[in-house]
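Q: I have 440 residues here and want to know how they pack in 3D. Can you give me a structure?
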Amino acid sequence: MFSDRATIHAAAGRGGDGSVAFRREKYVPRGGPSGGDGGDGGSIVLVADPGLRDLNAVRRHPHVRAADGHGGEGSNRTGATGEDTEVRVPVGTQVLDEEGILLVDLARPGARAVVAHGGRGGSGNRRFRTAVRQAPRTAELGGLGEELTLDLRLKLLADAALLGFPNVGKSSLLRRLSNARPKVADYPFTTIEPVLGVVDLAADRQVTVMDVPGLLEGAAEGHGLGLDFLAHLERARLLLHVVDAGLEPDEAVRGLVAIHAELAAYQADLARRPRIVVLNRTDLVPEPRAEQAARLAGLVAALGDAPAARDVVRDEDGRPVVVAVSCATGDGVDDLTAALARWVPEPEAEPEAEEELADYLVYRPGRRGGATVRVLRGDEGVRLVGAAIEDDLARLDDAAAEQLLADYVEERRLRPLLVRAGAKKGVIVKVGDREVPYRA
């Protein structure tokens, strides 16, 4: 089954703890502190893989975790950094946070984005040595990695897309045009998922054509399968509006207007996309193909500046482009291929400096959580260090300070760090010049 949506729970690794150690060497009886820093935790990285078709693999493994950083050691040895975890997704995947805000759009092969950052490694006791404190027994605990729930949505990349009402022969047309083999049957909604095919236009040029499930009136409000698949049309550079030649001409025009209204209701930019009208199943009508196409083109032209006709591609004489084809006999398919070669825009040439700039253009969400706070442990107990919390507590009385510390610990998810540092109910936590009881 094709999956264009998935939810992942990304947990980056926590940083390694700093070490408390001292030099102990021959002839150096009172060596200084030599505790190394902990390594940073691993991050969660999404990578756009052109070999993937949908998000099925991600749906099967929604919980993703990166490795923790290793703790520091004596002799000033820094702990190893936790290994990043790469999650491969199809090209065209968008990443949204829990509030529906777009974080990153992986719209090109090989694009990468760090979506959950690993925790920072804690400082060893060598970092706390001062002129008056030559043998500190204080070390910092590694920070927690980010834990996020992310929504992934796939919008397929295609040069052209077939659209129209159900059962007008879009899948049969894609079979004729390309190497795709979608299911074909004589009932509506035979196609229930997008299908991509490759069309050879010349020896050195190919285009991708996408078939999506048929649209119904009200698709932009969720009727039929429209709302799930209208999004895939957003990336198509040309739309092929397929119409059944068996319809009365006036009814075919009303269908063009209705489908255009659904595109406009979903997204204004999509309604302004260039379109070619494809008159399919012309073999079922005794009239010659050319006459069928000319009659429908005349009716589209008669709409004038109406929105449904404004963005239909025009030929040199200003007439709407209507291509008449028969999937059963193959008549007109070459004409449609020629229309694709002419009207599908050529890919934009990338600037020469793109390679150098690419690494800087990849979006990487920043670390969350605002001001940082450090958790230290040593002979004097547990200490929180952070300008924001220290300033806030300095202005409060004892009862309010205790409540603020409890809220702060909950909001910043500091409870695991405090527990590792030895804090439990009633233990005094030092914050700046204040000593505040800890609520477990």
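Q: Anything worth noting?
A: The chain has twelve helices and 19 strands. Residues 370-440 form a domain with the GMP Synthetase; Chain A, domain 3 fold (CATH 3.30.300).
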